[in-house]
Amino acid sequence: MESSFARWTRELTHAEIARALKALTRDYVQRRSRLRGEALTGKGKQAAFALYYGPRHFVITREVLAALDAPTPATIIDLGCGTGVAGAAWALRGGGSVVGVDLDANVLAQAVHTWRETGVRGGGVRAHIAKYRWPKPPVGIVAAFTINELDEADREKLWRELERQVQGGSRLLVLEPLATRIAPWWQDWAGRVAALGGRADEWHFDNELPERVHLLGKSAGLRPERLGAKSLWA
Q1: Residue 30 has pLDDT above 70, yes or no
Q2: Which 3 state secondary structure label does DSSP give 200?
Q3: Cβ pair 100, 78 in contact under 8 A
Q4: SS3 for 231?
Q5: CA dist 175 to 4, 5, 203, Å?
Q6: DSSP summary character for residue 39
Q7: What is the dotted CATH code of the domain comprising 2-233?
Q8: pLDDT (tens digit, 9 = 90+) per residue, 62-111?
Q9: Does residue 175 carry a pLDDT above 50?
Q10: Given its phi and psi angles, is residue 169 left (phi above 0), alpha (psi -120 to 50 degrees) or beta?
Q11: What per-residue confidence (pLDDT) applies to 1?
């Protein structure tokens, strides 16, 4: 986190990042149908995501994997990897390497920075997650807070690939926000995962975030002390 804050605050002030965080959060909550992978346009929103949502997603992913007692596969595919924190959280449990999949070259660069700073072996693939050319199973697959951005056709295409991977021995973790409106397809997918022998859960955590992350959230009018998510695990 110190490295990330040092990197972004060379160009942007705390107030500028807080304003961008407020706008980014508004986009995700109120304008989801118009996002389609374009939420992180501009350095302000990229910084806001890296410095606020990145650490939150890292902690949530780490805690969910611990609660599930999830083993670490040799290769972890991080779909819609963003800043690479979900793949890093899984790799740090047992030394796996990460392949991050994302359309945005700037975001992939941030993911590489994350993996380097956390000592994780990782590389990026620039591709739409519904069009990614999958390796043979078994692998680990994490899709953290990203499937909600897909339209129905791409989501169904991705599901067919995920189903094939799980049937081939891969392990799958899907994370999404607790809010029902963000992922109206959730119950359908929960049923599909259950049919594969998996499980659906909701999580609430009391972990404290680093002080600078907490202050950034407060400055944007958010409630950083609330950490939670729902998950699918197969």
Answers
A1: no
A2: strand
A3: yes
A4: strand
A5: 23, 25, 10
A6: T
A7: 3.40.50.150
A8: 999 999 999 999 999 999 999 999 999 999 999 899 999 999 888 899 89
A9: yes
A10: left
A11: 87
- Is residue 66 a contact partner of residue 88, using CB atoms and an 8 Å limit? no
Characterize 73-107 residue by residue with b for buried, 16 or more Cβ atoms within 10 angstroms of its Cβ, and e for exposed: bebbbbbbbbbbbbbbbbbbbeebebbbbbebeeb
Over range 214-226, report the average pLDDT: 93
In the predicted structure, residue 151 carries a pLDDT above the cut 90: yes
DSSP string, 81-107: -TTSHHHHHHHHHHT-EEEEEES-HHH
DSSP state of 91: H
Contact 29, 54 (CB under 8 A): no
The Cα 211–Cα 146 span in angstroms is 26
Query: How is residue 129 written in tokens?
Result: 């997650």
Q: Residue 27 is encoded by which pair of tokens?
A: 């986009």
pLDDT grade, residue 179 (50/70/90)? confident
> In 38-139, where do the E strands start and end?
75-79, 97-102, 122-126
The share of the chain scoring above pLDDT 70, in percent, equals 94
Whether 145 and 173 have beta carbons less than 8 Å apart is answered as no
State both tokens at 18.
Answer: 């807080």
Q: Please give the structure tokens belonging to residue 199.
A: 């499980």
Q: Which residues pair with 76 in a beta bridge?
A: 98, 140
Distance CA 149, CA 4 (A): 25
Q: Which amino acid is at 68?
A: L
